[in-house]
User: Fold this.
Amino acid sequence: MEQSLMEKLTILADSAKYDVACTSSGASRAAKAGSMGSCYAPGCCHAFTADGRCVSLLKVLMTNCCAFDCGYCVNRRSNDAPRATFSPWELAELTIEFYRRNYIEGLFLSSAVLVSPDYTTERMLKTLRLLRNEYHFGGYIHAKAIPGTSPELLEQLGFLADRLSVNVELPSESSLKLLAPDKGRHSIFRPMKQIAVEGAANREELTLYRKAPRFAPAGQSTQMIVGASPETDHHILKLTEGMYQKYSLKRVFYSAYIPVAEDTRLPALDTKPPLLREHRLYQADWLLRFYQFKADEILDAEHPNFNPYLDPKCNWAVQHYGLFPVDVNRASFEMLLRVPGIGPKSARRIWHARKQASLGLDELKRMGVVLKRAQYFITCRGFAGAHPGRGSAGRERITSALIDPNVFSGGVEQLSLFSPPAVDKLVAQGVPPHAAQKLVREEAVQCLARAL
Assistant:
């Protein structure tokens, strides 16, 4: 029986919900006479999906009929699920109608592998050509490059889309062979390298010819699934750092694995998604991109996984407490960035303001410094550093101020979204959530205090 357009949209939008790499920032293109849509960074009005993720695009698959059989994927060949496929005309018209009704400002287009990577990419290209050339759509388009696509088709895709992404999916080649036998390391990193090389060449060309066509002006991103395979956080972070350096990625996205089908190679269906681990990876990713940290400073072979109770920056500060306190009026910019409670904006404000006058606590507070955390790590004009007290009580006062509030933010009857495993274990044993959080927090404070 032939499916209606709404039935296809329902199936293919739902099939795309596990793909989180859909940021729309990074491209700027004004509307032109005779065309519709514009793409000013960040480009699109944001909306929230049912699972709580912030998106600004029509996020949909071209098809969920897949020739691959990746164990972690809800759209894999062997999974018994409703299937649908858009024709290029259907998807282009649907995008335009949604835009005209002010539902969206752009398109995030991904796809399962229908027949082959090249066949699927050709259908995606036809859709984008219809949008750009027939409908003169100037809005933001993010297209997923299918691993294994030929370089010629990938190049064409880059000149039609604002951003491209190639999903790494799993952090190691051994996990790919086990869970995604149809994919390989080469089929993923080859197109990633091509996008990086062609993007750099295009930027050089634009300095000479201002009206030259732009290749993926918003750059490229990727996504990794966290928790489906046994790699450590250190392994994932090292891979992330390498991709930023080698392929000039704009973002690496992390997706906590949600069990979608029974498979002996994967966590059991009743396994909770590792949301806290995903959260820590995003925090560490931020340190790599904006705080001048290296992956081996955040984690190492002796400590390969994140501390569940401290964010990565505070955990580093606790492990290197002997380097503090620092004088904010004299410390290097790099050291300011490493003080808990001081972010890149406030560090820059301090760096510029202290050239004019010596800074005290009042000035730091106005600059956005979180003194609840920073007071134990800094000195400034008229302030010799907070003195929490002597012995274990003083150390516990410091660690209590540093503990991640997101971990213990649940109410009396519910847990935090990022509840650590120790709390979940107590709740499973019948301890009320509020009491479990209190017990684990007290134990964590004492444990962390001993590390100071």
About this structure: The chain has 17 helices and ten strands.
